[in-house]
């Protein structure tokens, strides 16, 4: 099983938890952002030494609240590959409607070459109107209740952009005409002629696997139909299994017969202690800060205990519903083993990045997972 890590990439936060400031009252300056970047550099080097495969980061913009402060994942990821030996760097996820599709295609191709093939490409539709509208995407996806009516436009922009990106990567000469994009625009003069086709310079080293979050409905159908690698997170096992199997069934309908875990990735929060009490003590504030930050976006509405769109779970609810793997070494082994057997896991993104964890606490987590948890699942990382 391939073992990856996922980081939201926040600033150091010494007062995380329900007793701290409400998320919208938090405000951090550039020094705190830089300190967050230095932590990510350090954790990438720790992950590299231990043998984790890929470190994924998350794109967000204008987050003075300090939770997600890495706006350009390709640029940051290329840097991480330059200070590590073999660790790959992934984007979870490039918010495609906020990009010009050809600039995104160029930037990824450049980083793929400069990193000597150590980049992984992930894409999403976006959920934050503050970002989307400021950056010219007009809207964010309907995952946010404030923008649900514009979800279809977002979906159209995303799907056309992906067609453009993959076409530009695959063909030495290309043109494209759709509802939202036409490349090249008609009538461009160039040295006595009119431009009718384009060539992307550079193009990636080879075929690019595309990772995308999947959820029930249109997004699941699209991800499986076009052959993107589906990523699912923050749901109880029964719902994850439903989406997981649905992906395989749709892929089969479109001519792709897959192994039970092929082309799908589970993303799961993971925090380990020597005892369950130790794990709960060190995870509680970070869990609660993470949940109250994201609850208004409906991130936890799939919990069985959810009582509305903005439901905020307790740590005990996240653990009892097996949405997160938090507890003793035995607890985490049991939860990850349950998912491995349920889904036939071939890849997993472990998410250890709880707000408020110090550099030293995160290092301890990476060591405990690599040296205590994974071997009991029959997994040994290359350097562990």
Descriptive report:
By secondary structure, the chain is of the alpha/beta class. The chain folds into two domains: 241 residues, Luciferase-like domain (TIM Barrel), CATH 3.20.20; 119 residues, Luciferase-like domain (TIM Barrel), CATH 3.20.20. The protein has eleven helices and 14 strands. The strands form three sheets. The protein has an eight-stranded parallel β-barrel with strand order 1-2-3-5-10-11-12-14, surrounded by seven helices. Strands 6-7 form a two-stranded antiparallel sheet. A two-stranded antiparallel ribbon has the order 8-9. Helix 6 links the parallel strand 10 and strand 11. The model has no long low-confidence stretch (mean pLDDT 94). InterPro entries: Bact_Lucif_Oxidored, Luciferase-like_dom, Luciferase-like_sf.
